[in-house]
Amino acid sequence: MTLLVVLLAAGVAELVVPARSQVVPPSAPVAVPGPTTPEPEGLLRRGRWWWALLAGAGAAAFVGGPLALPAGLVTGTVVLVVAQRIEPAVVRARREEVRRDLPHVVTLLAAALRSGAAPADAVDLVCRSLPGAAAERLVPVAARLRLGGDPVAIWTALGGDPELAPLGRTLARAQRTGAPIVGAVERLGEELARRGRAEVEDRARAIGVRAAVPLGLCLLPSFLVLGIVPLAVSLATTITG
After folding, report:
1. How many domains are contained in the chain?
2. Conformational region of residue 162, where left means phi above 0, alpha means psi within -120 to 50, and beta covers everything else
3. How far is the CA of 125 from the CAs of 102, 188, 201, 216, in angstroms?
4. How many Cβ atoms sit within 10 Å of the Cβ of residue 40?
5. Does the keyword NADP apply (predicted)?
6. What is the pLDDT of residues 123-135, one digit of tens each?
7. Which domain does 184 fall in, by range?
8. Whether residue 32 has pLDDT greater than 70
9. 138 near 126, Cβ under 8 Å?
10. pLDDT tens digit string along 182-230?
11. Is the pLDDT of residue 30 over 50?
C-alpha cells in the first residue's frame, strides 16, 4: 500500500509539474520551425509510463501471491501500448482540419502561381487568406523560401507531413524535373477535388446502408399490425368457423 501511494504521488507530480525541457525562458531566441511542428500530447499519452506503472502496481496488489508480478507486467504493458496509440482529440481535430483545407489551399496556391506570384509569395498569400491549421504548417515553408533555401529540399521536407504530403511531393517533383509548377499544382487540385467528391459519395452511401436497419425496425411494428395481425385473425376466424 505504501508503494502504491508513493507511485501515485510521483505520477501526479509528473503530470502536473511541467518538464524543464518544456519551459522556454522569455528571453530565449525562438527558432524558425520546420515544415511541421510537433503536435501537443494529451494527458494520457504524456504520462503513459506513469499510468502503466500505476496500473501494473495496482494489478499486482489486487492479484497478490505468485501471480502478482506477471499480472502487473501484463497490465502495465497493455496500458502503455493503449496510451501510446490513443490520439489526443486536439491532434485529431487539427489533422482533420488540415485534410479538409488541403483542396482549398492547393486551388488558391495554383491561382496565385498562375497570376505570376513567386512560390514564396504565393504560399504567404495562401496562409493569409486561409488561416488555420494548414496555414500554420505552411508559414515556415514561406519563410524558408524567402531566406533562399533549396526549393527541392523544402518541398521534400513538406512531403513528410502526413496531411500536406501530396502538395510537398508534387512541388518537389516539379522542381526536380523542371516541369511547370502551375500545371502540377492545378492537376493536384483537380485530383483532390475528385477525391473529395468520391469521399462524400461514399459517406452518403454508407449512411444509407446504416440507416436501413433502424428504418426497418421502425416499420416492423406497423407491418405486423397492419399486415400480419389481420391475416392471422382472418385465418383463425375461418378455421374456427
Report:
1. 2
2. alpha
3. 15, 19, 32, 52
4. 11
5. no
6. 999 888 888 888 8
7. 91-194
8. no
9. yes
10. 898 999 888 988 888 888 888 888 887 777 778 778 888 887 888 788 8
11. no
Burial of 119 (0-12, 13-18, 19+ CB in 10 A): buried
73 and 143 housed in the same domain: no
Which residue do the cell numbers 501511494 mark? Answer: 5
Asked if residues 70 and 53 have their Cβ atoms less than 8 Å apart, the reply is: no
Give the whole-angstrom CA distance, residue 50 versus residue 46: 9
Share of the chain above pLDDT 70, in %: 78
pLDDT computed for residue 201 by the predictor: 84
Q: Looking at this protein, which amino acid is placed at residue 164?
A: L
Q: What pTM was computed for the model?
A: 0.56
Is the domain of 102 the same as that of 190? Answer: yes
Three-class secondary structure of residue 15 per DSSP: helix
DSSP string of 171-195? HHHHHHHT--HHHHHHHHHHHHHHH
Q: Render 60-85 in DSSP notation, one character per residue.
A: HHHH-GGGHHHHHHHHHHHHHHHHHH
Q: How far apart are CA 165 and CA 171, in angstroms?
A: 10
Residues 11-28 have pLDDT tens digits of 544 544 444 434 434 433
Q: Nearest-CA neighbor of 43 among 90, 6, 9, 78?
A: 90
H or E, element range at 32: none
Contact 52, 84 (CB under 8 A): no
User: Grid coordinates representing 35?
Assistant: 515544415
Average pLDDT of the chain?
Answer: 77
Say yes or no to pLDDT of 176 above 50: yes
